[in-house]
């Protein structure tokens, strides 16, 4: 079973539903469920306008390949050569999130509760294909009674080593009562244009580790966090519900995007590298990222597990 290239793919498990938008950067467009006569959005759903515009930034979550977050001035040196991404069609001053989120993915096998999406990048003169290394990627997406699991896989198809990072960019419903719970070692402080400078203390670190968690409105954040335990919970205590993000290695890094200027936006993202890792002069263990040899593959999964409090006060 497969879907037309410009249509949504629906996965279902009981009252739970996931909508995929392969043509919008391989995005997840919605993750929701019906319970006790109400609809619960676990991720911020894409609007009809965002779907019509094919805007990945308006989706519920989208993949980050072949790197996460920003690359300073859209340039870096690798293996003795300058890689210039300034002409790749990215509208940002610093190249952002790679190219897979801005190109369509192909739908592979689909069943009632599972789907596989495929992506193939071949360098060319086309703007969005300016990344000079060939690679392929898949997303295996599976829905069950409690969890939505995504397995990201990629393989270097080039005849030379390729710098690489991956992640996903989920948006969560943000209210005045939304709380974020996580254990991290430090926050990456950054320049005004959001390039990291150093990892160090920040009040958000303690707030997320506290029993009550960090209010999504507590700080103006668009930051990477180091020493993440690879699990984070977003909770809506007034709605008696929570969703927990858990991730495998190499998703050793976490991004929190909770901008004061946009109080409706909240992202807690599993990523394998900090912003601008390829230009950052620190130990690889601190900044993440990888180099894939020709033909080398990498695969890792992350998952969202949902909880709704019952009448007895337990999840």
Topology:
Elements: E1 9-13, E2 16-21, E3 27-35, E4 38-41, H1 48-53, E5 63-64, E6 70-71, E7 75-78, E8 81-84, E9 95-96, E10 106-110, E11 114-121, E12 135-143, E13 147-156, E14 162-164, E15 167-168, E16 179-182, E17 186-190, E18 196-200, H2 203-209, E19 214-215, E20 221-226, E21 231-236, E22 241-247, E23 253-258, E24 267-271, H3 284-287, E25 290-292, E26 297-308
Antiparallel strand pairs: 1-2, 2-3, 3-4, 5-15, 6-9, 7-8, 10-11, 11-12, 12-13, 13-26, 14-25, 16-19, 16-21, 17-18, 17-20, 20-23, 21-22, 22-26, 23-24
Task: Please give a structural write-up.
There is one protein chain. This protein has 315 residues and is mostly beta strands. It has helices spanning 48-53, 203-209, 284-287; strands at 9-13, 16-21, 27-35, 38-41, 63-64, 70-71, 75-78, 81-84, 95-96, 106-110, 114-121, 135-143, 147-156, 162-164, 167-168, 179-182, 186-190, 196-200, 214-215, 221-226, 231-236, 241-247, 253-258, 267-271, 290-292, 297-308. A 9-stranded antiparallel sheet has the order 10-11-12-13-26-22-21-16-19. It has a 5-stranded antiparallel sheet with strand order 18-17-20-23-24, with no helix packed on it. It has a 4-stranded antiparallel sheet with strand order 1-2-3-4, with no helix packed on it. β10 (106-110) and β11 (114-121) form a beta hairpin. The protein starts with 8 loop residues before the first strand and ends in a 7-residue tail after the last strand.
């Amino acid at each position: 079973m497969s879907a037309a290239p410009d249509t949504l793919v629906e996965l279902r498990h009981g009252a739970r539903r996931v909508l995929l938008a392969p043509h919008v950067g391989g995005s997840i467009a919605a993750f929701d469920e019906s319970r006790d006569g109400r609809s619960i959005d676990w991720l911020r759903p894409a609007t009809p306008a965002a779907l019509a515009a094919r805007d990945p930034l308006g989706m519920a979550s989208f993949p980050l390949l072949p790197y996460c977050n920003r690359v300073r001035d859209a340039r870096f040196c690798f293996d003795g050569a300058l890689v210039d991404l300034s002409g790749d069609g990215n509208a940002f001053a610093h190249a952002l999130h790679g190219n897979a989120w801005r190109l369509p993915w192909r739908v592979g096998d689909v069943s009632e509760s599972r789907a596989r999406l495929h992506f193939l990048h071949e360098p060319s003169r086309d703007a969005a294909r300016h990344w000079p290394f060939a690679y392929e990627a898949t997303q295996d997406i599976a829905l069950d009674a409690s969890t939505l699991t995504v397995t990201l896989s990629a393989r270097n198809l080039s005849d030379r080593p390729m710098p690489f990072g991956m992640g996903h960019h989920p948006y969560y419903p943000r209210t005045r009562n939304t709380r974020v719970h996580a254990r991290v070692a430090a926050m990456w402080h950054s320049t005004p244009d959001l390039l990291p400078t150093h990892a160090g203390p920040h009040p958000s670190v303690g707030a997320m580790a506290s029993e009550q968690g960090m209010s999504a409105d507590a700080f103006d954040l668009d930051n990477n966090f180091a020493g993440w335990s690879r699990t984070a919970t977003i909770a809506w205590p007034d709605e008696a519900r929570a969703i927990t993000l858990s991730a495998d290695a190499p998703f050793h890094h976490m991004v929190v995007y909770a901008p004061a200027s946009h109080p409706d936006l909240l992202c807690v993202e599993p990523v394998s590298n900090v912003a601008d890792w390829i230009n950052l002069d620190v130990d690889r263990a601190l900044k993440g990222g990888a180099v894939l040899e020709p033909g080398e593959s990498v695969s890792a999964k992350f998952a969202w597990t949902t909880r709704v409090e019952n009448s007895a006060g337990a999840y």
